[in-house]
Design brief:
Layout: E1 2-5, H1 11-22, H2 25-29, H3 36-45, E2 50-60, E3 63-75, E4 78-88, H4 97-111, E5 135-136
Antiparallel strand pairs: 1-2, 2-3, 3-4, 3-5
Helix pairs in contact: 1-3
Length: 144
């Protein structure tokens, strides 16, 4: 398995992956065509908070089997990152791929000297400047 930055050529496959990863029987029974996470991905791509360097895919035998991304968030007036969604094909779940993607995105964020945080957990990276304030995700999260 290889984890690398997402390319424009990966976008349709990533959308299908996110749809497969988050589709539930309840959603299908409710007649919903795709999970909200797939729409969120589209909204995030079109948002100013989109960070192409922090959209990673896991590839096995030329097939995208996992994806994770961070978008620009804020802690008060300070830039931060919001991580979501993290997606793994159902056939590949439970094999440590999600953990590998999490470690890769954290390493990429550290390498880019980013600060980190969300309202459920906070992971302070090396560049953390001691920001204390309310966390805000990129605007598309507010549509959920």
């Amino acid at each position: 398995m290889l984890i690398r930055r997402e390319t424009a050529a990966d976008q349709d496959e990533v959308h299908r992956l996110v749809t497969a990863a988050f589709t539930s029987p309840e959603q299908t029974q409710a007649g919903l065509s795709e999970p909200i996470e797939a729409r969120l991905l589209d909204w995030l791509r079109a948002d100013n908070g989109w960070l192409p360097k922090l959209s990673l895919v896991a590839v096995e035998q030329e097939v995208v089997v996992g994806h994770v991304l961070c978008t620009r968030g804020r802690v008060g007036d300070h830039p931060a990152l919001g991580l979501a969604p993290l997606s793994v094909l159902p056939t590949n779940q439970g094999k440590g791929l999600g953990s590998a993607l999490m470690h890769a995105i954290l390493a990429a964020a550290e390498a880019l000297n980013e600060a980190w945080g969300d309202h459920f957990q906070v992971r302070a990276l090396t560049g953390y400047a001691g920001q204390v304030d309310r966390f805000e995700y990129a605007e598309p999260f507010g549509r959920l």
